[in-house]
Amino acid sequence: MSGQDNNPILATRQGHPVTDNQSLRSVGERGPATLENYQFIEKITHFDRERIPERVVHARGTGAYGYFEATGKIGDEPATKYTRARVLTEAGKRTQVFVRFSTVIGSKDSPETARDPRGFAVKFYTVDGNWDLVGNNLRIFFIRDAIKFPDMIHAFKPDPVTNRQEPWRFYDFVQHHPESLHMVTWVKSPWGIPAGYRNMEGSSVNTYKLVNAEGVAHLAKFSWVPKQGVKNLTSQQAAEIQAKDVGHATKDLYEAIERGDHPEWTFCVQLMEDGPHDELDFDPLDDTKRWPEDKFPLLPIGRMVLDRNPDNVHAETEQSAFGTGVLVDGIDFSDDKMLQGRTLSYSDTQRYRVGANYLQLPVNAPKGTKARTNQQGGEMAYYVDQAGANKHVNYEPSSQGGLTEAPRPGKDYHQWVEGHLGRYQTTRTRDDYAQAGARYRSFEDWEREDLIANLAEDMRACPETIALRMVWHFWHCDPDYGTRVAQAAGIDLEKAKALPPLPGKPAPGQDRPGPTYSSGRREEPKGARPGRQAAE
Question: Among this protein's residues, is 454 annotated catalytic?
C-alpha cells in the first residue's frame, strides 16, 4: 500500500495503517490524554526499550548530592498562598537532593562539548516522599506532543546506515515542525554548548500546577538560576576543549565540590492562573514556548547547593532514576501533552533499564519517609516494602492489621474536563515563528555570529530542498535571520522566499484552524466552566 508520492504507508506492528502520527487522543484540544492511546503506548514503550543498559537519551552524565533550602515564600508572598507542598512552604527547611546533569543525544562516552540541550534532573528527598523535577537548561523543547518524541530522537541520533549524526536528518525533521525553530535558535547559538554544568540554567520545561490547602491551582513553570553565572562556548572554544578532554564538565563539577567551591542555584517559579489564557498568542501548556518574564516573572522560592560527590558512579549516578510523574502533594500535573507522555515513558524506561525494583536502590529510595506499598517480588528485590502490623496481610483494605490510607492533607483539586475525544494539534501556532525571531534579536552580536556560522555549515551539508525550506523558516522568524543564513551558506534567498507554505500547516504568524466534527460544524462553545474548583 502506498500513499502520497508513492511512499510506503506508515503502519503499526500490528499492521494497522497510521492515519495520524502527529497527535495523542485527548479530551478536547487542551484536555488530558486518554489511556486508550494504543498507538502511542505501543510506540513509546517500544522506544523505551531500544537500548540496554545505556539510557536511550541522556546517557552521558554526572551527578552530585546536596540540599535544597526553601524560603517559605514565593516572591514576596507566603508560599502557602499557592501550594501546600511542605518542601516549598517551610522556611529554612533543608531537603536532601541528588542532581544528575547530562547531554541528550550522545552515548555514554560522548564528549561533553557536544552541541546539545543539557539535562537538569533533581530528586528531592522530601518528608512527604520523593519529588523529581526533570528538565533541561533551555526552558523549552523541540516538540509539543509526546507522540513525536521517538521520531525526533531517531532523526537526531546517528544514521542507522552510516552511524553518523547527519545534519540533513536533523533539519529534515525540523522543517516539518515550525514549533522547533525556537529551540533550534537556542541550540545552534552558543547557548547550545554550556561551558560546564555549574554555569547553566535549569528548567522544568513542562507546565505543572501548584495546589494550595483550599484546592485552588495555579499553572507553574520551575527554573534554576546559577549563582555562578551563565557561561557558554562558541564552536571554536568547544573544539579546543574537546581536543584535550571529552569529559571537561564532569571534571569541573567534581573538582569544584572536592575543593569546597560548592555550586549554588536560586530556585524560581513562574505562575499563571489556571485556564487556557486566550489573551496569549501561545498556549501556556506548549513547551516549545517560554513564558515572557515581563508578564510572568521568575519568583524566588529557595536555593540549592551541591556539596558532595557520589561514592560510586555506577551505583548512584548511573542507576539514579527520575520520572516526571514523581510528585508530592501540593504539586500536580497539568494537561501539557509532553508532560503526560513523559510521565508514562520515564518510569517505564527505568523499570526496563534498571529493573522492576529500581526504587529500592538507595539513590532512588525515599529518605524523608518510608515506602509501604504491598508490592512484592520482581527482579532483584532485596526487601519487601510492606510494613503493616500483620505481615500476613499484603493487601488493602483489611481488618487484620494491614496498611491503611493516609488522611487527606487538604481539599482535593477538581478540574472540569469536557470535549470531543479525538486527535488534536494546538490551534495557537502564531508564536511558532515569533518567539524564535525575538530570541534571535535578543542575542548579542557575537552570539548571532556564532549562530549564523553554525547554521550555515549545517545548511551546506543538507540537500537543497531542505536548506531552502530552512532558510524560508528562518526568514519568517526574522528577515535578517534568514538573509544572513542564506548569504553565509550560499543559498538563493529569493528562491527560498518563493516557496509556498508547508502543506497542512498554518501560514507563519497565523493560528491553525480549529477542528470540525461529523456535523460539519465547528464545536459550539459550552457554558462557562470553572478552570479550577475546590471540593465542596
Answer: no
The residue length of the chain stands at: 536
The stretch 374-382 carries a mean pLDDT of 82
Take residue 420 and report the three cell numbers written for it. Answer: 470531543
Binding residues for heme: 346
The alpha carbon dihedral of 204, 121, 170, 468 has a sign of positive
For 216, 313, 415, the CA distances from 412, given in Å and listed in that order, are: 9, 41, 10
Please tell me the CATH superfamily of domain 25-360, with its number: Catalase core domain (2.40.180.10)
Out of 51-65, 99-113, 325-339, 521-535, which region has the weakest mean confidence (pLDDT)?
521-535
Burial bucket for residue 301 (CB in 10 Å: 0-12, 13-18, 19+): buried
Q: Which residue has the higher pLDDT, 510 or 138?
A: 138
- Which residues make beta-bridge pairs with 220? 208, 271
CA distance 356 to 381: 8
> Does residue 160 contact residue 64 with C-beta atoms inside 8 Å?
no
Confirm if 301 and 270 have CB atoms less than 8 A apart: no
Separation CA 371–CA 359 (nearest Å): 9
Supply the pLDDT for residue 181.
98
Q: What is the pLDDT of residue 141?
A: 97
Could you list the residues known to form a binding site, using ranges.
346
Give the domain ranges of the chain: 25-360
For residue 2, the model assigns a pLDDT of 54
- Considering the entire predicted model, what is its pTM? 0.89
The active-site residue out of 58, 248, 473, 476 is 58
**Catalytic: which of 37, 130, 136, 232?**
136
Cα–Cα distance, 35 to 55 (Å, whole number): 25
Q: At residue 427, what is the residue type?
A: T
Its sign, for the CA torsion 195, 64, 342, 127, is negative
Kindly state the cell numbers that stand for 40: 502511542
Q: Residue 535: is its pLDDT beyond 50? A: no
- Mean pLDDT for the chain? 91
For 210-232, what is each residue's pLDDT tens digit? 999 999 999 999 999 999 999 99
Question: Is 272 a residue whose pLDDT tops 50?
Answer: yes
Q: Is the peptide bond before 397 cis (omega within 30 degrees of 0)?
A: yes
CA distances (Å), origin 474, targets 180, 453, 469, 484, 497: 11, 14, 9, 9, 10
Spatial separation of the C-alpha atoms in residues 177 and 505, rounded to whole Å: 9
Decide if 136 is catalytic. Answer: yes
Strands (E) in 355-506, as ranges, are 413-414, 421-423
